[in-house]
Each structure stands twice: as structure tokens, then as C-alpha cells.
Fold this sequence. Notes:
This is Ectonucleotide pyrophosphatase/phosphodiesterase 1. By secondary structure, the chain is of the alpha/beta class.
Amino acid sequence: CPRNFSKSPLLLVSLDGFRAAYMKDHVAHIPVINKLRNTGTTAPYIRPVYPTKTFPNHYSIVTGLYPESHGIVDNKMYDVTRHAFFSLKTDEKFDPRWYQGEPVWVTASRQKLKTATFFWPGSDVAVNGTFPTLYKIYDKSIAFENRVSTVFEWLSLPEDQRSRSSDSLPDFYTLYLEEPDSSGHRYGPESQEVLEALKDVDRIMGLLMDGLMMRDLHHCVNIMIISDHGMEEASCEKATFVSNYVDDVSNFTVIQGPAARIRPKDLPNDYFSCEFLILEIPDQPMRPYLKENLPKRLHFANNKRIERGHLYMKAGWQAAIKEIKYCSGGFHGSDNVFANMQAIFIGYGPAFKVKTVVPPFENIELYNVMCDLLGIRPAPNNGSHGSLNHLLKRPAHQPVHPAQLSHDTPCEAGGPAPSDGLRCSCPSLTPDTVLVYDRIPGSRQMMKLLSSFTYSLISSNMAPMFPAFKDVWTYFHDVLLPKYSQELNGVNVMSGPVFDEDYDGNVDALQKISGNEAPIPTHFFLILTGCRNSTFSPVACEGPLQTRAFILPHRPDHSESCADGSDLLWVEDWLQLHSARVRDIELLTGLSFYHDRLSVEETLRLKTFLQTA
């Protein structure tokens, strides 16, 4: 770096609405972005947070928090504690009380670094009482070229225009471009207009890289290019209306879209009530949920700004109360595992590896990477610090396994059977066929792996199961588990109960679970682990492991699937809907897995992986 830089600055660039598939579909039209992708570090896609909206995702990227944790749960929302409405079109968005968590520019400021933001959701708000050192109030009319030129001005400020407290330049910068999102909304993701928008943002990225080269900064600045979400084609034929299922819709409103929420009209008095019913019909595109029953992987329940009634939509579908506002062009907001919602990531600069492609990851992991690049301590967040170390040439943070909080209970017995005969006579006792100490009764000590599947079926773990759920549990073990085992050349299976009555995504306190009666689990978890090299079994695996994990709601009926009768063919799709990361299971159980075979960094990558297909 030039002598006026004490360290490599970090530039975070957002290309709003840049769908991951655009990289492949339009590769010939984005030569600059493609060159950065091929020469730096990238992933096939990164997973946004749910809902896949602009403000929630941009704020998750810079805080490392899920929307339920940082409070920006949508582009439009209601706060019952203040009876206040948030909208991007009103000045309410400047009220810092909406913004929880700590964005990276605040983290940097607390640790004596300077920051400069040319637009970013929350950057023109005094979050925790702090603005970036230099910032611009959002104005979409400012040309992209002018935004880039301003960033260059900040990168070369004369000493008399720098901060009063120090003569150093800013260490962290942001640059935000509305395209291709704006064109995607208006014309649809497959349109010629989106193609032109992609060409334009590629041209702007060319201006940026040329300017860095002219200033001898192209080998100095670390650049992270991201998008917040993808884009889906809108269709009036893929809109469904609550009024088709409920006769009286006068008492509530629907925040429409692909992640629709239901809110009572009498606010704040009836906000927490849920006195409405939507008829569930098999194969309908809209599935009603109370927020506490949504798939745990969505992390979309533990905030008062999230209405209790939620409509989960199939890919490509939107919901409204009577009529849809936008049923042409494009939209986003759907389940964050849907292919068209996936976003992009490119890391380029002296800190990033070259010509490296890493597996997909979730955007909450980027905050810790930014803090590492800036040499600062991250604030508490939902990411797993060190899970993206494989992106960097010289990672700053070396993760360790969590410390053991409880110890093995010592066994006072000297052996499995008393050595003293106790003056008893039992002539019919045959000890070697009656006592089984280290295996399932009726099994050989070195039984085949497939036989061990029955253990989680016959062992109750002292947790009661609803009869309807037990049918699903049995179907999984009898039908699906042998199938998965064959696909993976054997699997290791771990399963157990989950207690999360307060739906905060963390294990309930022991006082809540313990009592005179056996507590009823809210969920059961399953973790299947196999060898990525399918020629090896899990026990003999040489190389990386692969995992599939699920957090299954424990309910007294099959109403979620609209199933009645004994046909359980729906279970596999339901299982996939409730897929999860191993890390989610750890948080919900207080357990920690995979301590004895892999490095800590490899373990974190395994734990944060989400099987999406």
C-alpha cells in the first residue's frame, strides 16, 4: 500500500438484487465482474437471510445477525411497543430505535478506526449513537459514476480534511448500487432491461478497478462484492388470496408478498391475538404458520416486530388479502433456500486467496470476516467466527472448540456385575447371554452399521413422543434412513429431543425443562454424517465429512402437511422443509459435535453447512 495507508482498507460493494444465476447466464456481458470472480475468492452462491428483502439482508451482512436479532425484520414493519410503523418511504427509517445490533462501522469506530459509507441501510442513522466518520444520506438520484468518484476522493483525502483526532484515512468503505434490483422489479429477471443493467454495473466496476489501478491501490484495497438477494419472475397466475379461504377478512391485514404476515387491524390492542383461521388444503401454494412453528432454519420468530401469523409460500408465489399489488416484473422475499433467491460473493485483494472457489455459505458469516480484515474484535453475532477462514491467505482468528461445561458422571461400580456372591444361589443364571453392557440387547458387539439405526428407534431417551409423530419417526427409520445410508455408503446417526418453548432458537433453561412430569419436547433433531468420498464408510473416512441435519416439529397431528390417513409419502418433503444446520441444533440443545476428528475450522464449515436439495 502507499505510505499514507497504515493497513489495507476494506471496500464493501453491494450490487442489489444480483441473482447468483446471472453469473452463469450472462457471463459474456459482465467481463469485469467475471474477471474478479475468476482471479479472487468466490462461491457458487451465498445464502441470504429470511425474508430475502433488501433492508434485512444488508443489515444482516454488516452485523452478522439474523433479522429476529437485529430488529430489521422487513422493509415495512410495525413495533407494538412504540405503536410505530417503519417504511423506506418515511423519515421513521432514521429513528435509531429500529436498529439493534452493532454494524461494522460502529464496531470499527469503537476501536478507533475511521469509516466512510456511500449508502448502506442504516449507515445514515445514529445506530448506538454513532454515525460513520463520513457518510451520505441516501439519494437514489446520484449517478453511479459520482458515487465511485466520491469513494476515490475519500481514499485520497488531504490531511487537512481528515478526522480531527488523527491524520489517517478511513479504513472501511461501502458502495451501494441499486441495480440490477430496480430493473429486475420493473421488468423481471429474464428481461433485456436486466441484461442492460448488468452491463452497466459491470462498467461501473470497471471504473472502480481502473481508478484503483491509477492510484496504485489495486494490490492494496481488499474488496468484497456482494448482493443481498436474488430475483424471481412475478406472475398474476401465481398469486393467492386469503379472502379465498376466510369469509371475513375485515379484522386483519396481510403484509403481502412471498413472506406474507398477518396483522390484526386493532393496534396495538389486538397485536398478539391470533383469532383467524385459514383452511389448509393439500397442495395449496400458501401454508399458514404461527411464527413459532416456522422451520427453525429461518430464524424468524424471536422478535415482537414479527407478527404471529405467517404465510409460507411456495417458490414463485405471492400472497395478499384480496388483490396483489405487483404481479408483473420481479420480486424477492421468498424462502432463502430457493435457487432464485441466492446472492453473490466475490473477495478480491491482498488478504483473499486467488483463484479459489469455496462452498456456499450464509451471509451472516461475513461480518466476522470484515472484522478480521480490519483487525478489530467483532461484537456478539450469530455467525461462527472462523468458519470462513478458508477464504483468507492468513486468517487472523484461530477458533477453538467450546469448553466442556459438564463432566462425565463417574461410575462407582467396579464392574458390570458384583464380585461378591452375596450368599445367593441362582443355578439357572447364564451371565454371558443375559448381561449386555456395551451394545443393544440382541446384537453382536461388532454389528453392521445398518443395524445400529434401530438404536434411536428403540431408545426413548426418556422423552415422550406423540403417537402421530412416532409414526413419522418410524417411517424415517424404516424407509428414509436406509435410502440415505445407501446414497452415502453408510451414515452415523445422532438424534434427540429439543426444548424451545420460548422459540428463541436457544436451549431452554434447565428450570423450565425439569419438573415432576416428563417434559414434552418441542422438536426432535436428527444429524446424519457420512464420508464425502463415498468409497469410504463414516468410520473409515479419509478426508472431509458431509452432513444432513433436521429439526422436526413435535406435534400431536399431521396438520402441517394437511395429511390424513396412513400414507406417509409426504414425510421426505416435510423433512427437507425442516432441514437445518448442525450449528442450529447445537444452539437448541446445548451440545457440541465433531470434536475428535477434524480441525476446528473444518468442523465449523461442517456445522454451518445447510443441505438445500
